[in-house]
Amino acid sequence: MRSISRFSWLLIKCKGWLAIVRIVRVDFLAKQAIARHEHEPLLLEAHNTKAEWDNEKGELVREREALKEELNKAKEMAVEAEQRPEVVQLEKEALQQ
């Protein structure tokens, strides 16, 4: 029977440890990938929800601006109406009655 030299035995032992390290590393990377894959839908959903909120916020801002414009127009129309002589006359008549 041939005896294994110390160098060969050390080499075999190192290759064994390297194989174990590779297996553990691959297992760790696989677990990370699985965890990332499981959380991906949640992240995507959160991103979509934020996008929806941003869209709704934009719509509300546009709607608020439109309402401000309408209010300004109504104020201008009221000022113009107050300056008309017919309106002034109608107001005087209404106050006298």
How would you explain this protein's 3D organization?
By secondary structure, the protein is an all-alpha fold. It has one domain. It is built from two helices and no strands. The mean pLDDT is 81. Keywords: Coiled coil, Signal.
List keywords for this structure.
mainly alpha; rod-shaped; coiled coil
Furnish the topology, listing elements before pairings:
Layout lengths: L5 H78 L1 H12 L1
What is the approximate shape?
Answer: rod-shaped
Order of helices and strands: HH
Radius of gyration based on Cα positions: 40 Å
| pLDDT averaged residue by residue | 81
The computed structural class is: mainly alpha
Would you summarize the structure shown here?
The protein is mainly alpha-helical and about 100 residues long. The protein has helices at about 5-85, 85-95.
